[in-house]
Amino acid sequence: MTADRSPTRYAEANRALRIRLVGFSGWSEDDVGAICTLLANLRAPQGPLELQSLKESRLLETIARLAWQLGDEGIAQRAPPIPSRAQSRKDGAHSRTKQIGASQRPQRAWRSIAALGSYLDERSLVAFARAAGWAKDSALFADVWSFLSIFQTLSTRSLRSLATAARFAGGRETLEGLVRWVMTHACVLDAPCVGALATACGKLHRADLLEQVWQLRRSVPGDLGAFASAWIDADQGYRFSDVWTAYRNECRIDSPSASNTGSGPEISRMWGAFVTAASRSGSVPVTDVWLLARPVARTLEDRTLCAFAEAGGGAKNRELVSEIAAILLSRRIDQGGISTLLTAASNTGDQPLVERLCALCLAEDWIGRQLLLTAIQATYYSGSRRAFDDLWAWIQDKRPTLAKGSIGRAGCGVRDARPNGAT
């Protein structure tokens, strides 16, 4: 398409772009190049007639859809399935090349619409910022923010997306501009938005900005949990005591019926962040956190309870670990949960719990290589001869079917863990 002066060129470009977007999932680099060429041949509207044509063509809406799909593509690629070793060796080079090419797509698309950048609305610009985030392109994110920063109002949803994009893009300076914009415009933010800003400040080690965002807290699970993790990430662990004080004075959740202050997952994540921060910072005793979490303990997610078990093991608190294990074992937990409990039980020297966990694994016949090694080490540190004998008998019985790697790693554990007399 040529850059002629016909007011219909925006409508034609919109139709052509929509046709391309239909087959988005199968885009090749040639498809991306064709789209960028199509958009690059457009110029800014000259006069009111062309400006009206641009608005009526709905081209800007289609460009926003393009940006959102680029972001969705990146988010999907951020956590790809783990391939086998053989598949990794076979397709490793091709996958890396494909990933590098895909990460450059937001930048290429943004450059191609440079002439229309000042006409994009909030939704379109936020979509490009989101795509810049997954591509880890701080320069692109800063460029997009330069257009957004002149807006007098931005929705809390947009601000939340921008904070998340800044975190992934690594835009420390742009994050500073975002926080300054929020403070200057005296925005009233919801808890998820405040939490996203706090997380970004922590991940990018901007304790100075985190201090400003702290003044915007809503004191609900969604943001207090984020602040607990953010102060740790920003190497200001002692500030968790301030978060803990804010929770006790402003956001008490001490019964399962107190659901009006946050959803179940939000409350669970908050307690997980609290116990992790308490364990890593030492500013608040883990037992104090558990004391307030106990009334809602049975409503917490498995990973949150595992965080409590890990912290209890680190604090050598046998009673705490046993109480959490009773809750977890009443559910159907995975091998990761069993492994966490084994480590915590071995740290506290709880022989009965180690024996119970080992018996559970062997009864289910689902013990994996890593879990087997953890179990053997747990028998050593807890001094449980009975659990060790059961594991050793299982190894001898399963030797023909165990992978060589499993036997080798288990052998290292047996060498270090076996009681006197075992061979």
Helix segment tally: 23
Show unreliable segments. Answer: 1-5, 79-100, 254-260, 417-423
Name the average pLDDT: 83
Number of E-type strands? 0
Helix content percent band: over 70%
What's the order of the H and E elements?
Answer: HHHHHHHHHHHHHHHHHHHHHHH
Q: What is the SS-derived class?
A: mainly alpha
Backbone shape: elongated
What does the largest sheet look like? Answer: none
Taking the alpha carbons of the first and last residues, their distance comes to: 79 Å
What fraction strand?
A: under 5%
Oligomer: single chain
What is the radius of gyration computed over CA atoms, rounded to a whole number of angstroms? 27 Å
Structure in words:
With 423 residues, the protein is an all-alpha fold. It has helices at residues 9-22, 29-40, 48-57, 59-78, 85-103, 105-112, 122-134, 138-148, 156-169, 172-184, 191-203, 207-214, 221-233, 240-250, 264-281, 286-293, 302-314, 318-328, 335-348, 351-364, 369-382, 385-398, 404-417. The longest helix is centred in the N-terminal third of the chain and has 20 residues, at 59-78. The N and C termini lie far apart (79 Å).
